[in-house]
């Protein structure tokens, strides 16, 4: 029998593969330095990196509060620094300089990392990107790394990587101190490596496979107490509200304890907190499966299953829309489909049209089904509008998790409330604004029905919400319910005996617990950095936010809430003519923002000379019956007031925006939109474009040749209104169209503003731009339609509007030259 000796130690092995395995396991320790170097270079070049998941955390990085020594602004930057540190450690252990191919492997590993709170694999990245200046207790990240060798354990590896992170931060800190930088520095390294776990499941993605995420907000109790009606009770809340941490069976130090006994007034205060948070989250509702509209839900369920089963292939419904599926947009589609799944709840929850008089209670009970009734969170972010699917989200839970005295390493401690929020995914800015609304309600600067206003699907206006300071926002953990069953591993740090492998090891949980306390103390010190008011003892950070953000917001919010109440009242008038409070006798005295506009007789019908020709052309096109139809995409941002009858496949006016969007997705009827409109309202009135469009001659609007006189007159009007403005390439022409809050698609081409003006005999119809109202009737204004959210107030009468702009792709083209160029 042949034997193969090792050239280093001389030990014999039955095969060359066995010799190679021996050398790999010992990292060539028995070879001389030259042979060992060549061996390691060969191994690194040929070795396939294995997939691992890393558990790590990081402090909030706010450059305003301390010098950001490592240039980190979010979890992606922290992950990049961590991967670079791991690479440096690997090179030092090998004792070699990695060759070019190895460096490329490492660079690819950094570029391919994804994390639980990331947004790199979503088309909607700008809508769900991490809030700036926020940290994480624990975040999961996937990476490609070399396997551990030489008998080093995972615990030893974690300690060595952390030691390098600490040393890197220490060097940067010393450098800045030598430069006499007076900025405040964290007392600990801002990045903490918490765990490492091999991942056998090749398709695991830390970002896409999350079942739900949990975020905490570390809130000084001062924010909740400043608005209390009397000082004695305020002091009682601040001093006597007991410190506690809600016990969870998955916590490391879980102990079954009785809830603290509170005085009646403090107990009432806690109950009020709970009720406010309960109103902000989503709820489970019961609907009747016999409802006619249930067929719509069933069809959508089939659509979702088909899309999931076929992968990149297209289902029939998506083929009709020409929608392509690939690996980069599948995650975005999943978010949209999740929203569509719940889109008909409001329709389903109504009573069935034909009830059976002799049906049994048991049968009726079996026909019921439970659904998660999602809410629209478009008012809690600046990135998503009400007509977009991503606004339709779920918030599983919002609750008071703990009250702690922080910082623990200080003799001067204050109470902090830990709020916990769990959801499938959080929109950018959502957590800050939810906490801001919670504080506004608890401090009674706004009435309780503001919640109805901010979540009302039908209300066609944008409602501002106050963002709480970003300092308190911390990513707590991410859960992978489905993937844990597939991988037989615990993938979020918690106590669990379900599987032996994972982040349920005591050593990992101790690391997470220690880092959690470090983050809590750090944030508490940052809250206290500006000190307290010597006269009343209030936290300066809270006092500043209250006076500069909350109170100014509340003044405007109360006006918006009154507008909403009057709008809601007007809806009742349109529905059944019966309201609880009488309406004013003279409609001319009503504010257009009420949703009931003044009588058209109150308007001067005269037309300024500059607008006469354009208005005549508009009326002629209107009377000709040739007004072009509105595209489905544009109709989705219009308010509809139409009516219709028939089944869900017919072109009906949608009862809710959610159902309208769903009908648009699955419609099989040839029509321009999921909506139908009464003439003179919404999309039936029409919106089309003239001039140049991106894409060249093939994309030239047909209206150019249909209405040449109108086109020329409209472009000439721009020059009369703004002679110093660079002539635009394109005009959007609207007739009796009321738009929901939206931003224009695309981007401007060297022209950052749009120009808009209203024409006709109408009342109301003001343009709202980021909450500021403008009367545009024969008064042109400029605004940034691509970045600023804008919408139309309700109106009555004949209303036309022209919007001049130059989209990206139309650089150097002037609509005023169309007639000269002969391109009609």
TrEMBL record:
Residues 295-371, 573-597 are annotated as: Disordered. The keyword Cell inner membrane does not apply. GO terms for biological process: mRNA pseudouridine synthesis; tRNA pseudouridine synthesis. This is C2H2-type domain-containing protein. It comes from the Eukaryota. Signal peptide: none annotated. The lineage of its organism: Eukaryota, Sar, Stramenopiles, Ochrophyta, Bacillariophyta. Keywords: Metal-binding, Zinc, Zinc-finger. One of its GO terms (cellular component) is nucleus. InterPro entries: PsdUridine_synth_TruA, Znf_C2H2_type. It comes from Nitzschia inconspicua. Residues 314-354 have a biased composition (Basic and acidic residues). Residues 4-37 form the C2H2-type domain. GO terms for molecular function: pseudouridine synthase activity; RNA binding; zinc ion binding.
